[in-house]
Amino acid sequence: MKNIIVFWASLIIGLCTVPGVHAELYLWTDENGVKHYSNEPPPPEVQSFEKTKEDEFDPDADHMRILKDRAWRRQEKARIAEEKKQREAEAKAKSEAAERLAEERRKKEEEKARLAEEAEAEKKSHWTEENRRKSKKSVYVRPAK
């Protein structure tokens, strides 16, 4: 019986000395500009600090926060995927434009070379035609006997 009384007395004293659920939270900035958050008061040299009450845990609010966080993560993932798709499309369009430009340049060079060849061939044919005319006039061919 004595053990039971000691047990209950210890339990009651222990429960009475446990700090409350509503702990106080402290926020202050030190001389180096570092922000500190604590459930213990700041050192005595700190002149100004902010003191607030800690909110009780609310399972429903926590569940809603988790759902909102998941939705935000899905949206962020979709946004990042869309940006990646857009960058890839832009890169593809740029690459295709560069290929088209290179193809146009190649065709122009081919056309230029073809025209140069035609001009050279025409010049040669004109020269040979002119030589034939001259050669017909100046060469005498003796008839065969």
From TrEMBL:
Q: Where do the DUF4124 domain residues begin and end? A: 15-48
Record-given protein name? DUF4124 domain-containing protein
Against InterPro entries, the record matches this protein to:
DUF4124 (IPR025392)
**Compositionally biased tracts (Basic and acidic residues):** 48-62, 78-132
Ranges for region Disordered: 37-62, 78-145
User: Which spans does this entry mark as compositional bias, Basic residues?
Assistant: 133-145
Which Pfam families would you find in this protein's record?
DUF4124
